[in-house]
Amino acid sequence: MSALRVAIVAGEASGDALGAALIGALRAHTEVEVRGVAGPAMRAAGCEALADAHELAVMGLIEPLKHLPRLWRLRSLLLRQLMHWQPSVFIGVDAPAFNLNLAAQFKRRGVATVQYVSPQIWAWRQGRARTIARRCDLVLCLLPFEPAFYAHYAVRAQFVGHPLADQVPLAIDRAAARRELGLALDRPLLALLPGSRVGEVQRLAGPFIESARQLRLRHPGLQVIAPMANTAVQTEFRHALATARDAGGAGDGGGAGEGRVREGRAGQDGVVVLDGQARRALMAADVALVASGTATLEALLCRCPLVVAYRVSPATALLVRTLRLVRLPQFALPNLLAGKALVPEFFQEAAIPANLCPALEDALTDRARRELLQQEFARIHAALRAGGAARAAQEVLTLLRP
Question: What count of other Cβ atoms lies within 10 Å of the Cβ of residue 366?
Fold first, then answer.
């Protein structure tokens, strides 16, 4: 029997991780050949990369416009090369703006199409569900409430579980995480996660740093760590720290070397910047200030009380509000999964220290609230464990079965 040919396109680090796990799960069932857009994890899993996943790392409504010529050229190149290869299935991993257009071209040519990770159509631009119905034979959903929404549009959609729920243990050892990072066990700890994209950090680093400074004034023993997703965002965050220091605010505690915070490295009032290690930081922290996105789910899974904030460009914010593109009362993943306002969230002009700092202090000091959060977080964590990549692979193979 000839190998199953899988064309796959993933965007950014999270999509690369999902794609790699799916490739491994498919290999457990059948012989596969894989080509497409990949990052290091998918390459290691055996994907022949025709382009790198970071090329799809664009966001917003206005910001991607300047990248359109490059993305159009990339799409044409991929379509030409992959169709010549004659794949059995096209799988778009996240990056819906790019992948759904590519899926339409593949489906027109008789190739089965799968979107792995649903766009947030339940939150905004709900009309996209009709487009997805025309372009995708299957949608693999990470969140349990998504298939029911798709049912209204006759879209074949399956909840396969969120991979993070399987990766993060159900029992969190906060003390062990602190020891691994070289942090004091007897002092409160705040984690700052201002995003994985440069644009996010540019907009959020300032208010995050100032909120941490104000919280330290109220709690002098507070430790502050900031795990950075990559070199580019770390450079941007350090610049924001230096600006705050020059203005008399928070100081930069320097890097963490091999990932451990050596005694005195940050100073009593400093922010310790970590290379990666977001999950360990969230396991160690008493509270986190997090940019809206996957990191908010990771905080939930790590049982870390959190405050969520997000800012987009002024032009994007204006479009969202003018066209009423967002239809939900909450935008943070923990609140969407709980079906209620579980954690504080602040958008655009509301994402300021005057709001963030009091919310952080409440999350840090309200013991009854913390206990309630722990129970809710544990319940959601269990619900999100549904097989992940193994389940996704089974659904893809079922779709392709004659």
Answer: 13
| 142 and 202 inside one domain | no
Torsion over CA of 345, 190, 334 and 12, rounded to 10 degrees?
100
Whole-angstrom distance between the N-terminal and C-terminal Cα of the chain? 15
Nearest alpha-carbon partner for 205 in 265, 289, 281, 295: 289
Answer yes or no: do 117 and 252 share one domain: no
User: Residue 197 corresponds to which amino acid?
Assistant: R
Burial of 396 (0-12, 13-18, 19+ CB in 10 A): buried
The tens digit of pLDDT for each residue in 107-160 reads 999 999 999 999 877 666 677 889 999 999 999 999 998 998 898 888 999 999
| Helix, strand, or coil (residue 287) | strand
Q: Which residues form the domain of 196?
A: 174-384
Distance CA 236, CA 35 (A): 34
The reply to whether 147 and 221 lie within a common domain is no
Number of domains in the chain: 2
- Note whether 178 and 137 are same-domain residues: no
Structure tokens at 280: 């360990």
pLDDT tens-digit readout, 112-124 = 999 999 987 766 6
Q: Is the dihedral of CA 178, 186, 369, 123 positive or negative?
A: negative
Q: What is the CATH number of the domain that holds 53?
A: 3.40.50.2000
Rounded to whole angstroms, the Cα distance separating 281 from 190 reads 9
Tell me the whole-structure pTM to 2 decimals.
0.79
